[in-house]
UniProtKB/TrEMBL annotation:
<dbReference type="InterPro" id="IPR038750">
    <property type="entry name" value="YczE/YyaS-like"/>
</dbReference>
<dbReference type="Pfam" id="PF13189">
    <property type="entry name" value="Cytidylate_kin2"/>
</dbReference>
<feature type="transmembrane region" description="Helical">
    <location>
        <begin position="45"/>
        <end position="68"/>
    </location>
</feature>
<feature type="transmembrane region" description="Helical">
    <location>
        <begin position="80"/>
        <end position="99"/>
    </location>
</feature>
<keyword id="KW-1133">Transmembrane helix</keyword>
<feature type="transmembrane region" description="Helical">
    <location>
        <begin position="186"/>
        <end position="205"/>
    </location>
</feature>
<keyword id="KW-0472">Membrane</keyword>
<protein>
    <submittedName>
        <fullName>Predicted membrane protein</fullName>
    </submittedName>
</protein>
<feature type="transmembrane region" description="Helical">
    <location>
        <begin position="156"/>
        <end position="174"/>
    </location>
</feature>
<feature type="transmembrane region" description="Helical">
    <location>
        <begin position="105"/>
        <end position="124"/>
    </location>
</feature>
<feature type="transmembrane region" description="Helical">
    <location>
        <begin position="7"/>
        <end position="25"/>
    </location>
</feature>
<dbReference type="Pfam" id="PF19700">
    <property type="entry name" value="DUF6198"/>
</dbReference>
<dbReference type="InterPro" id="IPR027417">
    <property type="entry name" value="P-loop_NTPase"/>
</dbReference>
<keyword id="KW-0812">Transmembrane</keyword>
Length: 429
């Protein structure tokens, strides 16, 4: 039943994809990179866009066979019927949109953007189904697996190559540029970005459609049951903190007082062991996002679960580590969006520690041996990165009091702050 649902969703997503491709094409501002070569050929030869899509897709499948060789599996042949169906879907939807012939530039742009939204939703549905890849994505994955390349940059090179080849074909066949325009660039930037947004906004859909994937080994759906706790205090304490507020140091003291395990940089080592990345790499890429919008646009090429971006892979691995730590109980966890990762637990006390900027500047100057100006710049930069990272992965505002049980000013003194936390931890138990 699970498999049947997945294939139904995939087929519906394939049709939605064809709707998006056709509307983008009918906008007459170019088409998506993967469809640019078939589109240019359809403008210069009798065959339809759908026909050339099928031919081009089969060519990509044959190239995969040569690239993968003995690693080419029988399941890769599933791309053939998918490509044929996709091609016929495109021809069908081109007929459905036969009335779309915009002449004004603003109308063309509107149709293009609507097409990008539809195509992005179609890609989201394919990801949700998680049963197959279209030949374009599968071709890139074959290159990555064979020559051990980074998926994101390989996907960018592939998209650029498709557009360049299409443009060259247009000049050769028609002596002018047709089929590759600003719409090609817009589609390349927006579609994957929109697919990721749908994935985050509709994250609740997958557990509803496939509850069997979220069952524990006992066969019951995981409701994040609180860990057993025989102490007088709440089992798990998470600490979010402003840079320079002393949150990590205070967390260690708190853990020592309660006899709890303490996790801060230790999570880096635990995460590195599950991702294949070095500890240094994980440390540099965790809790740091320069700009969430730019990150989303740049990393749109990481669409399918098998090709998750390094940053997302690290966050997912850290989330799993944090949940495993919490299941053991009796722990203090610093940072890494732990308050939101564990938000469904009833045995978790969430704290945010802050301090006036002047106090934090003074503290950072002493610890890092920096000038006042450099310390201030470091604090502001790190806080922007933490805030962007937190918002990107949780859709919440970093430091907002509604996300925490306690928000405390560490300039009031460690003894006072620790006393308030310990009393609260005892009361919540």
């Amino acid at each position: 039943m699970n498999k049947l649902k997945r294939y139904i969703i995939f087929l519906v997503g394939l049709f939605v994809n064809s709707l998006g491709v056709s509307l983008i094409t009918k906008a007459n501002l170019g088409t998506s990179p993967i469809s640019s070569i078939p589109y240019v050929l359809s403008l210069n030869f009798p065959l339809t866009l759908g026909n050339f899509t099928i031919i081009f897709s089969i060519l990509l499948i044959i190239l995969q066979l040569f690239i993968l060789r003995k690693n080419f599996k029988l399941e890769h042949l599933l791309q053939i019927p998918i490509s044929i169906l996709f091609g016929y879907f495109i021809d069908l939807t081109m007929l459905l949109f036969s009335f779309v012939n915009p002449t004004a530039y603003i109308a063309k742009l509107i149709y293009l953007l609507i097409g990008c939204v539809i195509l992005g939703f179609g890609v989201y549905m394919e990801v949700l189904a998680d049963v197959a890849m279209l030949p374009g994505e599968s071709f890139v994955r074959a290159i990555v697996q064979t020559w051990h390349r980074e998926f994101g940059s390989t996907k960018v090179c592939f998209d650029v190559s498709m557009a360049v080849i299409a443009a060259a074909l247009s000049f050769i066949l028609a002596h002018r540029l047709d089929g590759v325009r600003e719409g090609t660039v817009i589609a390349a930037l927006l579609v994957g970005f929109l697919a990721r947004q749908f994935g985050r906004l509709l994250a609740f859909v997958k557990p509803m459609l496939f509850p069997e994937d979220y069952k524990t080994s006992e066969g019951k759906v995981d409701q994040t049951t609180p860990a057993s706790n025989n102490s007088d205090y709440v089992s798990v304490i998470t600490i979010g903190r402003q840079y320079g507020s002393g949150g990590s140091e205070l967390g260690q003291i708190l853990a020592d007082k309660l006899g709890y395990a303490f996790y801060d940089k230790e999570i880096i080592e635990m995460t590195a062991g599950t991702t294949g990345y070095s500890s240094n790499y994980v440390g540099e890429h965790q809790e740091s996002l320069t700009n969430s919008l730019i990150y989303d646009l740049v990393n749109h090429m990481y669409t399918f679960p098998e090709t998750e971006s390094p940053k997302d892979k690290i966050f997912d691995a850290q989330s799993k580590v944090i949940k495993e730590i919490a299941e053991k109980g009796h722990c203090v966890i610093v940072g890494r969006c732990a308050d939101q990762i564990l938000k469904d637990r009833t045995d978790c006390l969430n704290i945010f520690l802050h301090a006036p900027l002047k106090n934090r500047i003074k503290r950072v100057m002493g610890k890092k041996n920096l000038t006042e100006k450099d310390a201030k710049q470091l604090i502001l930069r790190e806080e922007r990165r933490r805030a962007d990272n937190y918002h990107y992965y949780t859709r919440q505002i970093w430091g907002a009091s509604a996300n925490y049980h306690l928000s405390l000013d560490t300039s009031l003194g460690y003894d006072y702050v620790l006393d308030v936390i310990i009393q609260t931890a005892k009361k919540m138990k």
